[in-house]
Recover the amino acids of this structure.
């Protein structure tokens, strides 16, 4: 890949956990956040949290510039006629907190016998816990995570 950003390899654990993801060092690099909606022949955007009226959600999918370059590279490798649809990317911290708390509430309603810790642990398997720690932010808050489909 030909871009000015540093590639930092990340070793993959045997299984995913938020604790293992927080072991990856995160440092502010000043990289700009850009819209991913300008290449519709390769990447479509459909910001679902905005579409569904989640308070604070934004009307576009924004990513770090190097993430967009990687997405374009990956989209170019898709079979003819297929493209990516980004349904979420960068999100404000308040949206991350809202999504996590909403999911916890839904789980609590369906599983009232679980402890608060069990509910949080279960919710964390589906939604990143919100974090204000600059060394360990929630992935979407950094502009480095995307939720996508291939269509």
């Amino acid at each position: 890949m030909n871009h000015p950003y540093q590639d930092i390899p990340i070793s993959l654990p045997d299984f995913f956990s938020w604790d293992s993801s927080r072991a990856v060092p995160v440092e502010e690099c000043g990289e700009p956040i850009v819209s991913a909606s300008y290449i519709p022949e390769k990447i479509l955007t459909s910001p679902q949290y905005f579409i569904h009226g989640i308070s604070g959600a934004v009307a576009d999918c924004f990513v770090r510039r190097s993430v967009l370059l990687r997405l374009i590279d990956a989209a170019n490798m898709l079979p003819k006629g297929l493209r990516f649809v980004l349904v979420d990317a960068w999100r404000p911290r308040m949206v991350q907190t809202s999504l996590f708390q909403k999911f916890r509430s839904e789980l609590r309603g369906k599983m009232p016998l679980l402890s608060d810790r069990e509910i949080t642990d279960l919710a964390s398997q589906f939604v990143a816990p919100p974090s204000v720690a600059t060394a360990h932010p929630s992935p979407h808050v950094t502009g480095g995570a995307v939720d996508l489909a291939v269509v």
Summary: The mean pLDDT is 86. The CA atoms of residues 64 and 144 lie 6 Å apart. Residues 28-150 form one domain.
